[in-house]
Amino acid sequence: MAGSTPFKRRGVLFILSSPSGAGKSTIARKLLASDDNLAMSVSATTRPIRPGEVDGVDYHFVDLERFREMVAAGEFLEWAHVFGHRYGTPHEPVEKALSEGRDVLFDIDWQGAQQLFQQAGGDVVRVFIFPPSLTELERRLRERGTDSDEVISARMDRAAAEISHWDGYEYVLVNDDVDACFESVKTILQAERLKRSRQTSLIGFVRSLSKQG
Ligand code: ADP
Ligand code: 5GP
After folding, report:
1. Which CATH superfamily is domain 13-207 in?
2. Each residue of 121-164: pLDDT tens digit?
3. Residue 163 in contact with residue 10, Cβ under 8 Å?
4. Which of 45, 50, 93, 98 gives 11 a disulfide partner, CB atoms 3.0 to 4.6 angstroms apart?
């Protein structure tokens, strides 16, 4: 995604949330593949690894004791209980990516979005993705084939709770057609990158354009 201003700017903390199965991982993968300036935040979790997942890529899979140590050592920017497990965002990789001039993408729930916003307000952009319907949400969870009936039913029960936090997000999208939704997400990111409030070297440039010099 080419920028169209030459100015240095503050990094964007770009959050995608949705009820499980609405498609945020799919969109996140497409976004990362299309954008060299974006780093994914890899969370730590106590949830068991699913078939096909890779430790250190999808999540850092840790046991409860290690997770508690990480909390006690202040290693998380935010953390929360989700579906009976704990999930947290390690702060170091986020700070490293920002210091290298990259933006950071987060796949976290509404609790994480709220906590990040408390800490980094103006740098945070929150996008919520709705499924087109509950029937389609359940169909996608089944089609994904990663969860038992019991887990799918728990995810469907939790969907309404996750959806009820839609008004904590600056942007809401419906993931009906995945390519259309992806294009909207890309547009949001690009527009947010261009916001004047993020450009940190404007004053010198504007002075160079003034007649007084
Ligand atoms: P989440 O990360 O929100 O839990 P996923 O990205 O894993 O959801 O998507 C759940 C399933 O739905 C996956 O099998 C994915 O391929 C499929 N999917 C995602 N977006 C769409 C879409 N727009 N139309 C149909 N299927 C989709
Ligand atoms: P899953 O188990 O399907 O990978 O993720 C379950 C939920 O946990 C998703 O809504 C996902 O966005 C959320 N999640 C993943 N990592 C984090 C995290 O670090 N913090 C918070 N608050 N939520 C997370």
Report:
1. P-loop containing nucleotide triphosphate hydrolases (3.40.50.300)
2. 889 999 999 999 999 999 999 998 878 899 899 989 999 999 99
3. no
4. 98
Tokens 């969370």, residue located: 43
Question: Other C-beta atoms within 10 Å of 5: how many?
Answer: 14
pTM of the model: 0.94
- Both tokens assigned to 75: 């290693």
Give the start-to-end residue ranges of the domains of the chain.
13-207
The answer to whether the CB of 31 falls within 8 A of the CB of 186 is yes
Long-range contacts (CB closer than 8 Å, 24 or more residues apart) made by 5-9: 5/194, 5/199, 6/205, 7/199, 7/200, 7/201, 7/202, 7/205, 8/101, 8/199, 8/200, 8/201, 9/193, 9/198, 9/199, 9/200
Q: How far is the CA of 161 from the centre of ligand 2 (A)?
A: 14
Query: Which DSSP symbol is given to 81?
Result: E
